[in-house]
Every structure is written in structure tokens, then in C-alpha cells.
């Protein structure tokens, strides 16, 4: 999970849609990238470029989305995204269907970033429990990390964090 901006992206609250979907608007600077190749089991994502060009990497192909074009990544489909330009920023929207705890996780991640809980060199959360919780809330599975490690390490860390009430502490601090 990489975090390049400390500014919270624009969000459309899932509760406004009755849980049917949620929107997030993302800004990536030139050469900026999102998380590494990953997938989600519980929702699909529709990417739509607002300004600039977004590159979506799939298992066997690349898609370049100019402004106003969209592309849907299905559940379980391996993907990553990045700014297609090394000179201009890109702004894009992602519609997640159905809504998942994505908004909550983003508010927590950006809150932690604002509090200095990001490893600036790596662009990742410093606390492994926070990372595990964020990945769990986003239903994100990383392609390059073996499944058994994700199941036994990240899933267990997320469960341990929940048992300790860390998820509720983060929600109380950054979401409510």
C-alpha cells in the first residue's frame, strides 16, 4: 500500500447509496502509482479518468484511459493503476460496487498519515497491525504476496487488532 498524498481524496459516502456503491476521487502526481498488483474478492471497481491519463495494469494487458473514459475491473481480477504521464498529474474516480469498508479505511489511512504514521521512504503505514486492518477493510489481496502469508500473517494480524479494539479506536479517532 503506497500513499503519495497526505490529502484525503474526495469521497461519496456509502450510506448515501444505501450501500449499493461508494465513490472515491484520487489524484496522482506525474509518475505516481497506486498499490502494487492486487485484487478484491467482494466488489468491482469502475475507474473513470477526470483529467490526465490513467494506466490500468491487468494480468495480461494494459489500458490507458483518457478523460471521460471508464473501465471496470471485476471481482478477483488482478490489477494496479498508475499515472500514464511523467509530466502531468491524473485525477480519476473509482466507483466500488457494492460499497465495502473502503471509505472507512481511507479515512483511517489518511488520518494516520496526517499524524506521521507513514514511513516516508516506503510510503506505507509504519504499524503492521494498521496495514493488516486497512487491507482487510479494503478487501485487498496482494498478488506478489503468497496467499498463505496473507491468510496466516495479515489476516491473523487484522483479527488480533480487532480483538484488541484497535479498529474501533482508529474509527473513533479518524472516522466519526
TrEMBL record:
Q: Which InterPro entries is this protein grouped with?
A: Cupin_2, RmlC-like_jellyroll, RmlC_Cupin_sf
Instruction: Indicate the segments forming the Cupin type-2 domain, all copies.
Output: 28-92
Source domain of life: Bacteria
Pfam families for the chain: Cupin_2
Q: What name has this protein been given in UniProt? A: Cupin type-2 domain-containing protein
Q: Which organism is it from?
A: Halalkalibacter hemicellulosilyticusJCM 9152
Amino acid at each position: 500500500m503506497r500513499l503519495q498524498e497526505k490529502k484525503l481524496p474526495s469521497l461519496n459516502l456509502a450510506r448515501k447509496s444505501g450501500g449499493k456503491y461508494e465513490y472515491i476521487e484520487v489524484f496522482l502526481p506525474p509518475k505516481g502509482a497506486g498499490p502494487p498488483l492486487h485484487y478484491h474478492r467482494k466488489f468491482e471497481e469502475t475507474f473513470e479518468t477526470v483529467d490526465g491519463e490513467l494506466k490500468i495494469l491487468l494480468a495480461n494487458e494494459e489500458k490507458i484511459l483518457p478523460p471521460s473514459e471508464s473501465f471496470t475491473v471485476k471481482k478477483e481480477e488482478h490489477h494496479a493503476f498508475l499515472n500514464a504521464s511523467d509530466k502531468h498529474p491524473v485525477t480519476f474516480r473509482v466507483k466500488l460496487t457494492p460499497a465495502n469498508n473502503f471509505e472507512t479505511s481511507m479515512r483511517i489511512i489518511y488520518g494516520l498519515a496526517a499524524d506521521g504514521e507513514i514511513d516516508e521512504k516506503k510510503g506505507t503505514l509504519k504499524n503492521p497491525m494498521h496495514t493488516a486492518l486497512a487491507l482487510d477493510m479494503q478487501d485487498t489481496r496482494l498478488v506478489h504476496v503468497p496467499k498463505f502469508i496473507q491468510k496466516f500473517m495479515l489476516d491473523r494480524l487484522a483479527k488480533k487488532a480487532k480483538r484488541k479494539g484497535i479498529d474501533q479506536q482508529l474509527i473513533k479517532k479518524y472516522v466519526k
